[in-house]
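Reading a protein record of the kind used here takes little practice once its layout is understood. The reader may check this reading against the record printed directly beneath this paragraph.
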Amino acid sequence: MQNIENKVAYITGASKGIGLGIAEALVRSGVKVAISGRDSKALEKAYQALGNQNVIVIESDVRNFDDEVKAVQQIVSEFGKLDIVIANAGVGKFGSIDEISLEDWNAMIDTNLTGAFHTLKATCEQLKANKGYYISIASLAGTNFFAKGAAYNASKFGLVGFTQAAMLDLRDYDVKCTTIMPGSVSTNFNGNTPSEDDKWKIQPSDIGQMVVDLLKMNPNVLPSKIEVRPTKTK
């Protein structure tokens, strides 16, 4: 197994939910972690929850490429390098295609798809230099379409295809790329408030452990696309 202690990771959209769950798992594994998001108060709360000196917080909007470039510069200045990138930032808004607004369409495409591109584009040279790992957090909605999900489906289908093509582009540089496609996760996504009723769902800590397992895996092995579902339906 690969030793990931003292590796440096960048996680977007990590003030709560899946991103924070991944950050917690990486910190426990001895990884230095940078988390980003748009809400400074939420980031500070996440920082306090992580409670580790090897954590930094960065205000960055993945829709803005310059923000991501500055984020990478800050990470390299603080930690000296960047090995692991988790493109997790995402939004979901749902409605019939004849009703969904241009604003909601653009919010999802710009965050879920273009944002993931911005993150990889900004971090690519560090990943190549350090033989790193890029992981995008997609969704089962990236392979299963459903009514009132056209915009969200488009963003996540696109993210899955983007990550798989990037994997082929970067594998000869010894850079790994994986997309994780979770089903129902206990987070605040789409207005949900995590509670006891969410016990049946995948937990953010489960995705965090999955990321750790991927990073520690034999370097000759690459699970490039992972679908993950709750064991039961409630």
